[in-house]
Amino acid sequence: MGKPTLTDLKAFQAVAEHCSFRRAADLMGVSRSSLSHTVRTLEQRLGTRLLHRTTRSVSLTESGEQLLLRLSPLLSDLEAILEDASSAEGKITGRLRINGSEGAVRLLLQTVVPRFLALHDGVELDLVAEGRLVDIVGQGFDAGVRLREAVPQDMVAIPVGHELRFLAVASPDYLHGRTAPKTPDDLASHQCIRQRLPSGKLYRWEFQQHGQDVAVDVPGALTLDSSQLMVEAAADGLGIAYVPESYALAYLRDGRLGTVLEEWCPRIPGLCLYYPNNRHVPPSLRAFIDLLRELRA
């Protein structure tokens, strides 16, 4: 049987890093059965078992762990060499995968993405929007976009947008006949539209004034997991919502919503694009970062 091919090795790496044939197959754009066949062929060529497979899990054998440990840096270096060779001719190619929240991906689509795709038509840009914070390295992403406070400390962070502000908002109908809250503690006597985070936890509303930080576990009969839905529910008079200003702006302008506790809602550092500081930056990501900085300037 012949020697393993580069495709065989990359298939094994994908399965090993994600511990899942399904996840690896989705990322590589192949069928699960095809990927399974490729890995089995690799094992036959090497004459050793690389993966333990059950109906519920995939894990590395000792041989698989040793192969992955030595193989990953080699494949990373090879990919960097090929991308650098391509970009040296003035043509940037390859696939750029970025993970972020829905709001972050929306901001990229409204700002940098159209121009980036026009300038670099050889790049396949894969944007994944999800609420939960993921390990971008472990999940095979080149970069992520999150609020600055959520970026891991060992990452390089590049500002994407301006500062952000969360606002407590309510409709005139809801506030009619009620005393608007003057401090966060006053929310205890109101109906609040609570938010469930991707982790499953309820978000504690965070306020600040004159250096004083306050986190409130607000009461409320309604819980949602979408800022857009929270804004719509607040506009319908169902309670007070605490959402990013951008979601509420149109409703504030036409009077469907008003703010409460505005002096307790300071601006905070905005979104950042981040990536590992100890890995080669592919030309596609470098070009994306350069364009981000140019647009901000």
Overall average pLDDT: 86
Radius of gyration: 24 Å
Instruction: For the largest sheet, list the strands in their spatial order.
Output: 4-3-5-15-6
Overall structural class, as computed from helix and strand content, comes to alpha+beta
Total of DSSP H or I helical runs spanning 4+ residues: 10
Q: Please give the largest β-sheet.
A: 5 strands, mixed
Helical coverage, percent range = 25-40%
What is the terminal separation in angstroms?
57 Å
Write down how many β-strands occur, each being a DSSP E stretch of 2 or more residues.
15
Low-confidence stretches: none
Overall, the morphology is elongated
Strand content: 15-25%
What string, H for helix and E for strand, traces the elements in order? HHHEEHEHHEEEEHEEEEHEHEEEH
Structural account:
The strands form five sheets. Strands 4-3-5-15-6 form a five-stranded mixed β-sheet. Strands 7, 12, 13 and 14 form a four-stranded antiparallel β-sheet that branches. A two-stranded antiparallel sheet has the order 1-2. Strand 9 and strand 10 (212-216) form a beta hairpin. Helix content is 39%, strand content 23%. The radius of gyration is 24 Å and the shape is elongated. By secondary structure, it is an alpha+beta fold.
